[in-house]
Amino acid sequence: MPGPYSVELRDFQMETPNPTGYHGHVTSEPPLAYIGCCGAYCRTCKPYRDGYCKGCKLGYATGERDLAKARCRIKVCCIKRGYESCADCPDLKTCDIIGSLHNRSSYKYRKYRESVAFICQHGYDEFLRQANTWTNAYGKLRPPEESPRE
Ligand code: SF4
Ligand code: SF4
Fold first, then answer.
1. Domain boundaries, position 87
2. Quick check: 126 pLDDT over 90?
3. Is residue 64 part of a domain?
4. Within a domain: residue 104?
5. I need a labelling partner for 16 at 20 to 30 A (CA). Which of 86, 88, 92, 108 fits?
């Protein structure tokens, strides 16, 4: 049975899972720790900025938070596997855990999915460069050659 990622991503193709070759750690620190496992970007997310949300991965490295108490299956799976986000996972295309979020109809989840696909294709540094200009947990992503540099 094909998984949710047998449906091609809207804007990005992922021919090879984890082309970044990057494997994160539960001890990751900002700026990478601002990237949510599902593709949400905590640093520019209003609930995080306003102090209502602790962010996806922040606080685990310092012991302020305990992964055993985390309720998000995506985060628990991703961090336990030692990935920075689901973009690093070879099972991304067939995973029902992340698929159940990314395939929801809301715009927000489609954007998270786009972020993960973008990281797969262009890597974390390029994602951070563009995401740091957002005013929300998601925003516009352009191919690097079309994204102006300061
Ligand atoms: S939905 Fe889960 S993986 Fe995504 S940002 Fe929230 S806690 Fe992290
Ligand atoms: S198995 Fe699914 S939820 Fe877990 S890291 Fe891989 S893609 Fe993410």
1. 24-137
2. yes
3. yes
4. yes
5. 108
In a domain, 16, yes or no: no
Residue 14 lies in a domain: no
Residue nearest to atom 8 of ligand 1 (CA): 56
Q: Which residues contact 1 (CB under 8 A, 6 or more apart)?
A: none
Q: Whose CA is nearest to atom 3 of ligand 2?
A: 74
Q: How many CA atoms are closer than 13 Å to the CA of 55, on its beta-carbon side?
A: 23
d(CA 128, CA 39): 11
pTM (two decimals): 0.84
Please state, rounded to an integer, the average pLDDT across all residues of the chain. Answer: 85
Q: Which ligand is nearest to the CA of 100?
A: 2
The protein residue with its alpha carbon nearest to ligand 2, atom 5, reads 78
| pLDDT tens digits, 69-110 | 999 999 999 999 999 999 999 999 999 999 999 999 999 999
